[in-house]
Amino acid sequence: MNANEFNILYDEIITKRLQEQGYFKKGKSMFLQRGTTMAVLLRNTFRGDKGVEIIFGVRHTFVRDYLNLSIQNLYLTNPMDYPFQFSMMEFNESNLFTISTTRYNQKVCDYIYYGETDIENSQDLRNYLEQICDNVIAFGPKLINLLSPKKSMDLIEKNINNAWIERIRLEDYKEFLLINK
Questions:
Q1: 162 lies in some domain
Q2: 138 Ramachandran zone, left/alpha/beta (phi>0; psi -120 to 50)
Q3: Is 167 a domain residue?
Q4: What is the mean pLDDT of residues 4-32?
Q5: Contact, 146 vs 62, CB < 8 A?
Q6: Which domain does 9 fall in, by range?
């Protein structure tokens, strides 16, 4: 399977269904905004690689981005801009009770290799994409509701590693919550 064939399959299984749920496409990623909460199904590809990395992320639009420390762009595609990242392939109801901020040693993405898959034999690949999509539809809205600004700030404070971006995020959350009492 080549990249074009994979794109068609991805759009058929994920893009179309998520658009029916209110997500909209920017580039190769799918975004859903509810108030100040932005959820995204990030899809990253690597030049020359016959695979994709898929991450479900949640952030708040008032939190500055990772590279420019700006809130100008709502539709961020750098995984580092999402303090909450999830692998949706294996996500289940119990994961809603064990949420923490992203740690680099956690499995937070699903890597799907399609390079040696024939179109005729793509059922496993279809199953992976359908599982990811089913979980985004089932748990995406729950994660958006669960990760309120206050809850997000509390989770970052609880799990802080003193990384500079965590300090920036805490400043943004505290300022937002102070203004919006």
A1: no
A2: alpha
A3: no
A4: 95
A5: no
A6: 3-148
User: Is residue 51 domain-resident?
Assistant: yes
What is the reported pTM?
Answer: 0.90
Q: How many domains does the chain have?
A: 1
CA nearest to 111, candidates 136, 129, 137, 123: 129
Contact, 147 vs 99, CB < 8 A?
yes
180 domain residue, yes or no: no
Q: Which residue did the predictor score with more confidence, 51 or 168? A: 168
Interval 25-53: pLDDT, tens: 999 999 999 999 999 999 987 666 778 88
Are the CB atoms for 40 and 57 separated by under 8 Å? yes
Neighbours of 116 (CB within 10 A): 8
**Per-residue pLDDT at 100:** 66
Measured CA to CA in angstroms, residue 157 lies from 145, 160, 171 at distances of 19, 5, 11
Q: CB neighbours of 164 closer than 8 A, spacing ≥ 6?
A: none
Q: Is the dihedral angle over the CA atoms 13, 52, 91, 155 positive or is it negative?
A: negative
Beta carbons within 8 Å of 25's beta carbon, 6+ residues apart = 15, 19, 31
